[in-house]
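Researcher: Go.
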Amino acid sequence: MAIEYGASALGLVSAMPSGPGVIPEETIAEIARLVPPGVASFLLTSKQDADSIIEQQRRCRTNTLQLVDSVSLETYARLREALPGIAIVQVIHVRGEESIDEAVNVSRHVDTLLLDSGNPTRAVKELGGTGRTHDWTISRKIREIVDIPIYLAGGLHAGNVVQAIREVGPFGIDLCSGVRTNGSLDRRKLASFFESVRSAHNP
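Model: Structure:
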């Protein structure tokens, strides 16, 4: 359904401490196997050590890793060595100006940044799917400073995505809760969202 409406990537959510959309690794592997050429398959992982991430990617066989929690610089190097050809996307949870330095430092080691609205410091970590927006002026600063593409996430829906695109100018948009009803993808919300995205590029 997501591809039908225009998605260029599918985010496949593995075990998380909180948030919607988690599916079993067996289902992730099955979907990744069936994704058509030209559509990326993202494995969203909350794991932080290299060995666990490498083993999980080899089970799921996606072409992209989306790291939703922080990892060490050594971990990036290990992932590059063990998983050649697999793109690495690092999520930055934008909570203040300090996120700018974090994004700049990480950007040297990954292919893409994804700017989201979670909070990994909470007792139960929030690593995505919060339905909250963040300060887009910070996201725009990050986009202007770093030399790699950024995705914008966090509380996006048909009613605010045009403003988000025009204020931040991201390479791509990532969404979850904004196109779900009772935890499942909603065809009506998907259609409305993609219509809004297309309108953002019209004068």
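Model: Residues 144 and 168 are 9 Å apart (CA to CA).
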